[in-house]
From TrEMBL:
Belongs to the LysR transcriptional regulatory family. This is LysR family transcriptional regulator. One of its GO terms (biological process) is DNA-templated transcription. GO terms for molecular function: DNA-binding transcription factor activity; sequence-specific DNA binding. Gene3D superfamilies: 3.40.190.290, Winged helix-like DNA-binding domain superfamily/Winged helix DNA-binding domain (1.10.10.10). It comes from Aquipseudomonas guryensis. Keywords: DNA-binding, Transcription, Transcription regulation. SUPFAM superfamilies: Periplasmic binding protein-like II (SSF53850), Winged helix' DNA-binding domain (SSF46785). The lineage of its organism: Bacteria, Pseudomonadati, Pseudomonadota, Gammaproteobacteria, Pseudomonadales. PANTHER family: HTH-TYPE TRANSCRIPTIONAL ACTIVATOR TTDR-RELATED (PTHR30537:SF5), HTH-TYPE TRANSCRIPTIONAL REGULATOR (PTHR30537). Residues 1-59 form the HTH lysR-type domain. It holds the Pfam family HTH_1.
């Protein structure tokens, strides 16, 4: 039994967490799945799957091996497609990753336009507020904010985002508009732990950095909740400007303390293969970067 087949069977089981479901997906018999897994585990000398009466789950070694299998099998598929000349036309599965609100508000409209132009591409979009490992998680293109820590990635800068403080017009009319970050201590503050673990907001005054420790009236686990509360006049909140772009444009929120904003944060479309990337990757990076650079929230 060849290694490619064993890895394909293991990856199907890892995705389905069921031997029977994996067999149906691959259109092979259940005993064939069992033999492939046994051969693979014997050859590697590790347990990849933990079996119980409730089904199967991945062991820690199995989790790591699943990431590697996904990447290796995709590389094999891309190599075969390149040899057949298929890279000339974008097609196949494209795996995207982005911060949650960035994906929902900025990226999804672009993805929909891209799919209209490239009907042979299927997109899986994962929105999460952490930096993905493109190599281990099989991500083709990721939207990354901040300096790139992985020097092996290729990246296209699409703009900058800013961390801002804002509140509803009604709240500011009732409580006054702060003119200096120190005044935040006398205001109602809505803090999001997704923005920062501790309620200490950083500002810039000339060449000096100001760290303002606050006692929030309301703390939320998500940026969406904090923004919604601010729109309902609960107080001042801090977030990235793109997260409230629509609320600012519609007048539901007003930015304050602009003169004390920290430095802008660069935003990149990052991908792995450079010039060797599949057509679906290259076409999406070109398509998305052009549209994102025109978005007012990234200027």
């Amino acid at each position: 039994m060849d290694r490619h087949h064993e890895m394909s069977v293991f990856l199907a089981v890892a995705s389905e967490l069921s031997l029977a479901a994996a067999a149906r997906r691959l259109q092979i018999s259940a005993p064939t799945v069992t033999r492939a897994l046994a051969s693979l585990e014997n050859r590697l000398g590790v347990t990849l799957l933990q079996r119980s009466t409730r089904g199967v789950s991945l062991s820690p070694a199995g989790e790591r091996f699943a990431h590697d299998c996904r990447r290796i099998l995709q590389d094999v598929s891309d190599a075969e497609a390149s040899a057949c000349g298929l890279h000339a036309q974008p097609r196949g599965h494209l795996h995207l990753a982005s911060p949650l609100l960035f994906g929902q508000q900025l990226l999804i409209p672009i993805v929909l336009d891209y799919l209209n132009d490239y009907p042979e591409v299927q997109v899986f979009a994962r929105f999460m507020d952490r930096f993905p490992n493109l190599h281990e998680e099989g991500v083709d293109v990721a939207m990354l904010a901040g300096e790139l820590a992985d020097s092996s990635l290729f990246a296209v800068k699409v703009g900058d985002i800013r961390r801002i403080v804002c509140a509803s017009p009604d709240y500011l009319a009732a409580q006054g508009t702060p003119q200096h970050p120190e005044e935040l201590r006398s205001h109602a503050v809505v803090h999001s732990s997704a923005d920062a673990r501790l309620p200490e907001w950083r500002f810039r005054e000339g060449a000096t950095t100001l760290n303002i420790a606050l006692r929030p009236r309301l703390s939320c686990a998500t940026n969406q909740a904090a923004i919604a509360a601010a729109c309902r006049h609960a107080g001042l909140t801090r977030c990235m400007n793109y997260q409230v772009h629509e609320q600012l444009a519609q007048g539901h929120l007003v930015q304050v303390l602009q003169a004390f904003e920290p430095a802008a944060v660069p935003v990149h479309l990052a991908y792995r293969e450079g010039r060797k990337a599949a057509a679906r990757v290259r076409s999406f990076v070109d398509f998305a970067s052009q549209q994102l650079r025109q978005h007012p929230a990234l200027r």
